[in-house]
Write a structure and sequence with these properties.
Oligomer: single chain
CATH topology of the largest domain: Quinone Oxidoreductase, Chain A, domain 1
Number of helices: 10
Shape: globular
Distance between the termini: 23 Å
Number of strands: 18
Structural class: alpha/beta
CATH architecture of the largest domain: Alpha-Beta Complex
Length: about 375
């Protein structure tokens, strides 16, 4: 049964989202209806707004979210009404090669695009016109219908605005350290870019006992945040050559350099500040078509490793509840990530602040 809901819809690249009433169909087989409690303002959505990623429009954006299960479709067994859930933007099939080897983020067993449900259709519409779902989540709305594997139960004593950030920024950043790179204690680490994900890479490095932990950014405010999340050194890349400074601090380069911006130039900088035999981890999501180049001979001569990291190489049904436990145990910081709460009507204002570099994380909350 369809319901009328309030949502923020992107109709044109480079234009503000329109907050309006749309139709949301109920969950079909294997799907879950979630009342959204909170959703984060993330740079991935900003890429879409700016037209840097090609997606079908109109679309309801939002992929970093948490809420409460209201209804389940036929065949759903993993969640039930009343469960508090973190929305997993890499809902997976559970049957393909990647799911079977424990890498569900790379799932390729669903033959439809990430902007529709598994069956290739949308649950959102406006006057009969389909509206697409960002990453099968579409959380810039009062309610969302998601695949069953896209709603991961977490303990109810985690506030929903905190749980939302566990769903992307925390999981991606901490996971980059512990899952993707598997950074050993005592390793030297540099993080290029101190936004929401970069701050969580820093706290992941602190969590595993890395030292030194060097934060690199061009904004002094973000470097101040970095110190709060575990950086032992900061480098203002607007004032000095970050590669030379990181090499100076470490005596030749870091064991692990993480790029958390998504920019060809800064990926190259991260590679250049990595010591011989070290690892460069690209976490930032770049605009489509962006490239970076390195000297081909430098790879064999230095034995450096370049790794990609998507969603912190998460096993969402294991790692998201674990992150919630670590938060409540005081091991992972989430509260200081929240710069400001917004209403859905303020969604465009939130992205303007993100674009100015003012936010660690903005969070849209629903009454």
């Amino acid at each position: 049964m369809a319901r009328q809901i309030k949502a923020a819809v992107l109709y044109e690249y480079g234009k503000p989202m329109v907050v309006e009433t749309v139709e949301l169909d109920g969950p079909r087989a294997g799907e879950v209806l979630v009342r959204v409690g909170a959703t984060g303002v993330c740079h991935s959505d900003y890429h879409v707004i700016k037209g840097e990623w090609s997606v079908p429009l109109p679309m309801v954006l939002g992929h970093e979210a948490a809420g409460v299960v209201e209804e389940v479709g036929p065949g759903v067994t993993l969640v039930k009404p009343g469960d508090h859930v973190v929305l997993n933007f890499r809902a997976h099939c559970g049957r393909c090669y990647y799911c079977n080897i424990g890498r569900p983020v790379l799932c390729d067993g669903v033959p439809t695009s990430r902007w529709v449900m598994f069956d290739g259709t949308t649950r959102l519409s406006k006057e009969g016109r389909p509206i697409y779902h960002m990453a099968r989540v579409a959380s810039f709305a009062e309610y969302a219908v998601v695949p069953e594997t896209g709603a991961v139960p977490v303990r109810k004593d985690v506030p929903l605005d905190r749980a939302a950030l566990i769903g992307c920024a925390v999981m991606t950043g901490v996971g980059a350290v512990v899952n993707t790179a598997k950074v050993p204690a005592g390793s030297s680490v540099a993080v290029v870019g101190c936004g929401g994900v970069g701050l969580n890479i820093l706290q992941g490095a602190a969590l595993v006992g890395a030292d030194p932990i060097i934060a690199v950014d061009v904004l002094e405010g973000k470097l101040a945040y970095a110190r709060e999340f575990g950086a032992t050194h900061t480098v203002d890349a607007a004032q000095t050559d970050p590669v030379a400074e990181v090499r100076r601090i470490t005596g030749g380069g870091v064991d692990f350099a993480f790029e958390a911006i998504g920019n060809g130039r800064t990926i190259r900088q991260a590679y250049e500040m990595t010591r011989p035999g070290g690892t460069t981890v690209v976490v930032g999501m770049a605009p489509e078509g962006d490239e970076f180049a390195i000297n081909a001979l430098s790879l064999p001569r230095t034995e450096k490793v370049i790794m990609g990291c998507w969603y912190g190489s998460a096993r969402p049904w294991v790692d998201l509840p674990r992150m919630a436990d670590l938060y409540l145990a005081g091991k992972v910081k989430v509260d200081p990530l929240i710069s400001r709460h917004y209403t859905l009507d303020q969604i465009n204002e939130a992205f303007e602040a993100l674009g100015r570099g003012e936010l660690k994380r903005g969070v849209v909350v629903f009454g």
